[in-house]
Structure formats: structure tokens, C-alpha cells
Amino acid sequence: MQAWFTKEIVDGGRLRLLCFLLAFIAAFLFIRFSVRMIRRQARWWPGNVTPGGRHIHHVVFGMVFMCVGGIGGLVVPGVSSGWAAATSAVFGVGTALVLDEFALVLHLSDVYWTEEGRLSVQVVMIAIALSGLLLLGLRPLGVGEKDVPGEPWQIAFGLLLNLAMSLIALLKGKTWTGLIGLFIGPLALVGAIRLARPGSPWAHHRYTEGSRKWSKAQVRDRRLRAPVQRFMMRFQDFVAGRPDQGR
Q1: CA–CA–CA angle 65, 68, 72 (5° rounding)
Q2: Any idea what DSSP says for residue 214?
Q3: Of 132, 99, 131, 133, nearest to 118 (Cα)?
Q4: Of 115, 157, 130, the residue nearest 17 (C-alpha)
Q5: Which positions carry the signal peptide feature in this UniProt record (predicted)?
Q6: How far is CA 177 from CA 34, 74, 120, 135, 215, in A?
Q7: Do the beta carbons of residue 128 and residue 21 sit within 8 Å?
Q8: Quick one: what percent of the chain has pLDDT higher than 70?
Q9: pLDDT, tens digit, for every residue of 33-82?
Q10: Strand ranges for the chain from DSSP E
């Protein structure tokens, strides 16, 4: 195990990314546990930080951690030193705190426990997934990979095609497929070929309401996507807490 860790993580230059990801996950789970205890008004758990009656959201602390970790990571020597790992972990903590209130920052309103607040959890899950792919050694569009076969023009064409397919998948409302497709090209191709999801920019501009494609997209979304979406929402509620009803 130690030999694998040294070879794949330390010598592979991925120690900082590992520390970032572990700290990110730990900070997200901790802050969600904290806000759920505050929501339940648990007497044994410290409440919100409210100096002078002003509620300071944890996104503020997150920005401080990100600045400390980001700037610190720029000045510490080496990529596998203890200080490099520590600054990456600090940056991971800050990123988790900021993304956990992503919806609040986007709406400039305290939507944390509303349906709109689910967006924060979704963004966190995406960040964890993409960081995990990077940790496994995958690179978006294959950038930085060595010994890629083919002529330069062939490589450039493949990268542009992969990027185009990923963008089409995103426009079709397939967020996960489009983003992960940047790392795994065939997945982006599948997302680009299949029908768009109802309500997506692609469907809005290219599917006429009542047309065959529009109707087929509606049926497919109810049959395939709805069960997955219900499972994901239950999982998000289990991890992050259920939004307030009727808001």
C-alpha cells in the first residue's frame, strides 16, 4: 500500500490533489452536520456566528480559507512537501465552504434550506466527481497526457470534437454527461447524439412543442430520468438535509 501511494500519488504529483479532495469532502460533511444541528436547535451544538447580531455565513470563512490556501500554495516550495499538502487541504476546506453556499451567492439571497438551495449540493457533488477523475489520472480533453498517438492535426481535431460533443451534451441539459464527457470522450458523444431533456436550451430552440421529438423527449425524461432524479434527491437529502417544504 505504501509503495503504491508513493509511486502513484507522491511520485505521480497527485499528493496535493488528494489532500484537497479529502479535506473538501471532510469539510462539506462537517459543515452540513453543523447546519443540521443548528436547524434542529440542538442545545449541545454551537449556533451560528453572529457577532453584533450579524449572521456571518460560512461562505465568508470559505473565502478566507481559499485565499490562505491558494496564496500559500503559490509560495511554498515543491509539489510533494508537507507544506504543499497542508495548503492544498486548507484550499479544499475553503472550496467546500464556498460551494456549499453556491446557491446563496448565485441568488444573493438566503436560499440555503429551499429547493433552490439544492443547487449547492449538486455543485459539490460535481466538484467531488471531477476531482476524483483527476485523481485517477484522467485529464479533461486529454490535456497533459503523454504519448498520445497521431499527428498534431489529428490530436487537435480529436480534442475539438470532444469539446464540441461535451458542449452539445451540456446544451441538451445533460450536465453530468457533458462534464464527465470532457474526460471520457465516448460518453460525450453519446450525450450529444441522444435527445435533449425538456426545458434545456437545445430543446427550447430546436424542438417545436407538440412535435415528435418534443413528445419523445417528454416520455423519455419521465421514464428514464425521473427515477434517477428521485434517487439523487433522496441521497442529497440524506447527506445534506431536506429543504423546507412550501418554500
Answers
A1: 140
A2: H
A3: 99
A4: 130
A5: none
A6: 32, 33, 19, 19, 22
A7: yes
A8: 94
A9: 999 999 998 989 988 888 888 889 999 999 999 999 999 999 998 787 88
A10: none
Helix segments in 46-141, DSSP class H:
58-75, 82-99, 102-107, 118-135
pLDDT at position 79:
80
Q: Which set of grid coordinates corresponds to residue 21?
A: 479532495
Q: What percent of the chain has pLDDT over 90?
A: 59
Cα–Cα distance, 212 to 197 (Å, whole number): 14
- What is the rounded CA–CA span in Å between residue 216 and residue 206? 14
Residue 119 has pLDDT above 90, yes or no: yes
Per-residue b or e along 37-67, where b marks 16 or more CB atoms closer than 10 Å to that residue's CB: eeeeeeeeeeeeeeeeeeeebbbebbeebbe
Smallest CA-to-CA distance from 125 within 175, 196, 191, 64 is with 175
Report, in angstroms and rounded to the nearest whole number, the Rg of the chain calculated over CA atoms.
21
> Is 60 exceeded by the pLDDT of residue 174?
yes
Secondary structure class of 182 (helix, strand, coil): coil
- The amino acid that residue 95 corresponds to is T
Cβ pair 227, 202 in contact under 8 A: no
Average pLDDT over residues 133-138: 88
